[in-house]
Design brief:
Elements: H1 7-17, H2 34-52, H3 56-61, E1 65-67, E2 70-72, H4 76-86, H5 105-118, H6 123-139, H7 142-153, E3 157-162, E4 178-181, E5 187-197, E6 206-215, E7 226-231, E8 233-235, E9 241-243, E10 246-251, E11 262-267, E12 274-277, H8 284-320, H9 346-378, H10 381-416, H11 428-435, H12 445-456, H13 459-479, H14 486-511, H15 515-519, H16 522-550, H17 558-574, H18 578-586
Parallel strand pairs: 3-6, 4-6
Antiparallel strand pairs: 1-2, 4-5, 5-11, 5-12, 6-7, 7-12, 8-9, 10-11
Helix pairs in contact: 1-9, 2-5, 5-8, 5-9, 6-7, 6-8, 8-9, 8-10, 8-11, 9-10, 9-16, 9-17, 10-11, 10-12, 10-13, 10-16, 12-16, 13-14, 13-16, 14-16, 14-18, 16-17, 16-18
The chain binds flavin-adenine dinucleotide.
């Protein structure tokens, strides 16, 4: 079977770079040790080999479709839900008392990397079911917890997050789906939701749509949004199912992720759609952010993993494809020699190294974010709040960098295959189509960038950035203790200076309330900040690799560690310099994208 991810790299990141062992000190994770973590990673791999990877192409070629009121998905999905339920994969990070494994998020996300790299059409169904059940577990009362969670974690019922409406995607303050009080504290829900992932298919018996709606008379804007659990079927005490007046009326045919259903839901056509309030009224968006923040890390992981699979597909091709000859020092080619493999051409090596630098840098950041989430969950006081702040700060970057740069990585992977990359016989075109959505759903890149510059930078008087700066300074100081890393430590220190320079330029706009100017180039700021954050990940990886090289007891071959240091150097040479262009653009004299009411449309 073709290789779609690298278990050695994953274990290097999990154990050596981000030290999952440090999480095992917490009572919550007492059931885990290094052996059980290894076993779980290996069993995720064998399940992915068996039931995910073999169906990757087939799910694209036989996409989900809607016919006569039903949504048909690939038959493997039924087996996936059943096995996920039986083996606990839907409750990995849930509390024991809610029926979960109480796994560190870091481990759950590491297993997710394996599943996503094997077949990015499947894990979203599982992730949404877990995320929706977790929202109910965190904020719901006992009655709805009992009503929904056991059947969701057992894989019998699916879960969704239903936010988007035809007139409101990025701006959730404009939600109009309504909730009218009914008997027993229940509500009648009426409205429409579009683009709902996993919102209908044949693999489960019921769906629980975690739906944002507005209770009649609630305040306008985000303050008047409540969260409801809305089942497709209501189950009576005698276990008979009654249709709850919410159904898919159409599906969306997409350019990628074609095996992952996306539907249009209509609620309350017959005025008989019951929703159960989750938590308190008007707090819905706050609650939903728990699921959305987790889902943003999940989307980042899907993107990083899809790009990882594309990298290994292009690497394999480059090792097998003969084409052209090496250029001799005389500048001539020796045509009497046989053709060389394309992996020997510097430009092909550049494209391969670029992919490796992007995907492993992104994976490292995502695992670090997962560790911060675990620490924020388990620790107390300052450690908890600091890690929470760091996670909040890094989440928009962890979603955006893999989605945007992962696409560039795959594009380079496709280029490695030349003409074959463009053809349906090879999977690169599919990876490129699949990853395109990731910069759109769960908040577009534009929205993530506004979040980073507009909310996360000023948050608590800039404390999150200070915390990150302190972490980077520690890494830089440690790198300086290794002769061969000093130059890279200095480069990264210079990059931190560039961020400060840009913020010093931008802050006066914010201080005088000119947010249009402050935020106009938020996406360029995201590009710059995420480039530096990934540079930090690479310096960390290089330190750990360097230590291992100097150590007599190595887990992996010396060449494995050398490849990490080499890729760090590649990143510092080819990627990090791009921050200078961002800086120049942000600080450029002309403001060219703001609306000027006094002038005619320039387009
Ligand atoms: C395949 C797929 C699956 C999805 N799954 C789900 C799901 O499960 N649940 C769910 O609720 N939704 C889902 N969505 C919806 C998705 O989250 C939205 O499409 C996305 O948030 C963007 O909203 P929109 O499509 O309305 O675009 P718009 O909000 O109209 O945005 C259009 C463009 O304008 C930009 N823009 C908008 N507002 C601003 C602003 N204030 N400042 C700067 N730029 C701005 C955006 O960045 C974007 O480039 C899915 C969508 C797709 C395509």
């Amino acid at each position: 079977m073709a290789r779609y991810m690298c278990m050695d790299t994953l274990k290097f990141l999990v154990f050596d770079v981000h030290r999952i062992q440090e999480l095992l000190q917490y009572e919550r994770f007492a059931a885990f040790d290094t052996d059980s973590i290894n076993i779980l990673l290996d069993s995720a791999m064998s399940w992915a080999d068996q039931d995910f990877y073999p169906y990757y192409r087939d799910m694209d070629e036989k996409p989900v479709y809607y016919k006569d009121g039903k949504t048909y998905s690939h038959p493997i999905l039924k087996k996936i839900f059943t096995q996920a339920g039986e083996n606990g994969w839907l409750g990995t990070y849930f509390d024991h008392e809610d029926g979960g494994m109480q796994m560190p998020h870091m481990l759950a996300n590491a297993t997710n990397h394996i599943f996503e790299a094997a077949n990015n059409h499947i894990p979203g169904y599982m992730g949404l079911t877990s995320g929706a059940a977790h929202l109910i577990a965190t904020f719901g009362n006992e009655t709805i917890k009992q009503k929904f969670i056991p059947n969701m974690l057992s894989g019998k019922w699916g879960g969704t997050m239903a936010l988007t409406e035809p007139q409101c995607g990025s701006s959730l303050s404009d939600i109009v789906t309504s909730a009218k009080p009914a008997a027993n504290g229940e509500y009648f829900i009426k409205g429409q939701k579009i683009f709902i992932s996993g919102g209908d298919h044949e693999a489960v018996d019921n769906f629980i749509h975690l739906t944002l709606a507005r209770i009649e008379g609630a305040p306008a804007g985000t303050k008047g949004i409540s969260l409801f659990a809305v089942p497709k079927y209501r189950y009576n005490k005698d276990e008979t199912a009654e249709y709850n007046d919410v159904s898919a009326v159409a599906d969306f045919q997409k350019m990628g992720q074609r095996g992952y259903s996306t539907v249009h839901l209509v609620y309350g056509e017959k005025e008989d759609c019951i929703g159960y309030l989750v938590g308190e009224a008007n707090q819905g968006l706050k609650y939903m952010f728990q699921m959305m923040n987790g889902a943003r890390i999940d989307v980042g992981m899907t993107a990083a993993s899809t790009a990882t699979a594309a990298y290994y597909a292009s690497l394999q091709y480059a090792k097998e494809r003969p084409q052209g000859r090496k250029i001799l020092n005389s500048g001539k080619k020796d045509v009497s020699e046989g053709q060389t493999l394309i992996i020997n051409h510097p430009d092909v090596r550049r494209m391969l190294l670029l992919q490796k630098a992007i995907v492993e840098g992104a994976l490292s950041l995502l695992l670090e974010c997962s560790k911060y989430s675990d620490i924020a969950h388990c620790d107390a006081d300052e450690t908890k709040s600091n890690h929470h702040l760091l996670l909040e700060f890094l989440t928009p970057i962890a979603k955006t960098y893999p989605s945007e740069m992962g696409r560039i990585a795959i594009n380079n992977g496709l280029q490695v295959l030349g003409g074959y990359g463009y053809c349906m016989d090879f999977p690169l075109q599919q990876y490129l189509r699949d990853i395109r959505i990731m910069a759109i759903y769960e908040g577009t890149t534009g929205i993530q960038s506004l979040d980073l510059l507009g909310r996360k930078i000023p948050m608590e008087n800039g404390k999150a950035l200070q915390l990150l700066t302190a972490q980077m300074t520690m890494t830089i100081n440690e790198a300086k203790t290794y002769e061969n890393l000093i130059v890279y430590a200095d480069i990264l220190a210079g990059k931190m200076g560039e961020i400060q320079k840009v913020l010093t330029y931008l802050m006066p706009y914010a201080a005088k309330g000119d947010y249009e100017n402050y935020l106009a180039d938020a996406t360029i700021f995201m590009e710059m900040a995420s480039n530096i954050v990934i540079g930090h990940q690479w310096l960390k990886m290089a330190i750990v690799a360097q230590k291992a090289i100097l150590n007599d007891e190595k887990v992996f071959e010396t060449s494995f560690y050398e490849s990490k240091i080499h890729t760090m150097k590649f990143y510092f040479k080819y990627e990090l310099p791009k921050t200078k262009a961002c800086l120049e653009t942000i600080m450029y004299q002309d403001k060219l994208t703001l609306v000027d009411e006094s002038k005619e449309l320039i387009f």
